[in-house]
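Suppose you are handed a protein chain with no further information: no name, no annotation, nothing but its sequence. What can you learn? This example shows the usual starting point.
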Amino acid sequence: MKPTNPVFTGIDTTVFETMSRLAMAHGAVNLGQGFPDVDGPEDIREVAARALQEGPNQYPPMLGVPDLRQAVAETNKRFYGLDIDPMSEVLVTSGATEALADCILALVSPGDDVVLIEPLYDCYLPIVKRAGGVPVRVRVTPPGWQLDRQALQNAFSDKTKAILLNNPMNPTAKVFSDDELQFITDLCVRHDAYAICDEVYEHLVFDGLAHKPLMTFEGMRERTVRIGSAGKTFSLTGWKVGYVTGPAGLLDPIAKAHQWVTFTTPPALQKAVAFGLRKDDGYYQTFEHDLMTKRDRMAHGLAALGFTVLPCKATYFLTCGFAGLGLGRTDVEACETLVKQAGVAAVPVSAFYGSDAPTGYIRFCFCKQENVIDEALARLSVFLTAARAESA
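A reasonable first move is to predict its three-dimensional structure. Written in structure tokens, the prediction is:
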């Protein structure tokens, strides 16, 4: 038979799905896949339920329900001082992954270079390749996650069409500094490159830090598209509601790509997300505080067990070194040991890199109920205590 598309043929199942399946098979506490184990605010869900019953439930406008597009524009002004036209500069998508696909398919042509910063969210690479783009990878590595500015500068050329920037960054929990963002800005302006900004963790930033979109930097307003996620902001990942903000000239082809990918997103969910985005500052502050509390609870517990816990400035992920714990030579072996023998699922950080990845770190997800975090820590303690006794 004729071959199928080589970009997707034989591609590995995502590491998150793999670890979730192992967690189910072994009755493990799943701290691997990045989703909360409680649903989002009840009042948002009530708005969705009411809108579902009252209707209409037919195709909404392709660009999104006007009220949600207005709410996204208001949010850009409220948090970042950005003046956005809701009718021509906002697009609603069926999740941030679709938004990424729309942006890449619309802006990248065959042969264009696309700068990617590893570790990568796993959909970036296949979508860039499917668009015919040439991935040019620069990496940050643990424990410091420092941006190699010379390497990034070398990655840009006259062939560079875009940089895909994840900030705040999964799995590193890194928030790019203003100085780093200015450096990226200068490169984009110098090489006339677009910036596709995956900012789904924009409201999961801790310790008094604040997210600053690349779009707010001088020279970037007309060359940047930024992607947000109601799933991350409201702990409603199953709803798959995302949004793209960008200049009208870029949103037009992106919307055309969206037209042939999903076309629309359920209107009841869009109406509820519009309600959610207009919540007062108390919601966002409480959301961040609750996640910080869970972060600290898990970080202190893991450190007490002997893990090297790296700083976490954002997202809901902790990266940990496991040297000296006898879990295996690599992060893949360590995760297999933990899920099968300790009953706790984590994710190997090497899965977010291409070749020659660092293999001494694993990622735990802390957006879980406190009793779930405590159960995971208890299981790890029992396993590690027994392992130490056996090796003594």
